[in-house]
Amino acid sequence: PHPAMIFAKPTIAAAAATHVGRVRDHNEDAFQIGTTVFAVADGMGGHAAGEVASGIAVATIAEIADRPDLTVARVVDAVTLANRRILASAARHPEQTGMGTTIAGLALVTVGNAPHWAVFNLGDSRVYRFLDGFLRQVSVDHSEVGELLDAGLLTPAEARVHPARNVVTRSLGRDPMCHVDTWVFPPYAGERFVMCTDGLSNELEHDEIADLLRTNPEPARAAQALVDAAVAAGGRDNVAVVVVDYHGTGVAADDDTTPRSALS
Predict the structure, then answer these.
(1) Which end of the chain is more exposed for a tag (fewer CB within 10 A), N or C?
(2) DSSP H/E element including 171
(3) Half-sphere exposure of 209 toward its Cβ, with a 13 Å CA cutoff?
(4) pLDDT of 1-48, one tens digit each?
């Protein structure tokens, strides 16, 4: 187990937890929590190379966490830089050849002189938004199973046990660089975000995640409860979770709180 990490400032409280799970012998998941940028990464490659890739990814994202007037373009640039660093590390160390990582995160950015959230992802690590008691997945899974789900060829229950559920179609560590999906929307007081690797989403149903968020109002307790539940449900993979609560001012909720895509 990894002890929960906690971050707080007047308008944002965040915490993270991770666990190696019951099957793997080392943890290739990583996370970042900071002032304005939060992320999880799920490394791939074996022989500890996945751990190297995910570590590079979150360390690179952490470099922009304290920058004023952060923009969507700067966030995407940081993800792109992480990809270059992963490729460069693999070039220097042949045993790392083929390593890669997913990344999914949340950043507080400036759009039109106003604060906005920017969700970003590559791969099948996820970002959820929990608002007014309802949980919605913001990010889109870049995976073979995700594409089958989108096409209506699989049900969610079938997707959770599909043999190709761990095959991602986008990740860091590829040349050329994959497209980074982003969603940009105004903040809303009282909302909560969850970033997680598939060690959580493959073990717990959507409603189970929502229930744990309802019953654990503190971010640290929520993050740890989610990780503990994923391990108890099977723990067949590493799991990492970041929970972010926003307590500042924001736009009024309307009938459609689904984030809208926007590029810089």
Answers:
(1) N
(2) none
(3) 29
(4) 555 667 666 699 999 999 999 999 999 999 999 989 999 999 998 667
Inter-residue contact 29 to 197 (CB < 8 Å): yes
Ordered alpha helix ranges (H), the chain: 49-62, 72-92, 144-150, 156-161, 198-201, 206-215, 219-232
Print burial letters for 114-151: b (CB count within 10 Å at least 16), e (below 16).
ebbbbbbbbbbbbbbbbbeeebeebbbbbbbbbebbee
Letter for the amino acid at 257? T
The whole-angstrom separation of Cα 138 and Cα 120 is 9
Bridge-based pairing of strands 103-111 and 100-101 is: unpaired
Residue with tokens 């660089």: 177
Residue 112: count other Cβ atoms within 10 Å of its Cβ.
5
Contact 105/39 with Cβ under 8 angstroms?
yes
**Closest Cα to residue 203, out of 227, 167, 175?**
227
Residues 108-142 have pLDDT tens digits of: 999 999 999 999 999 999 999 999 999 999 999 99
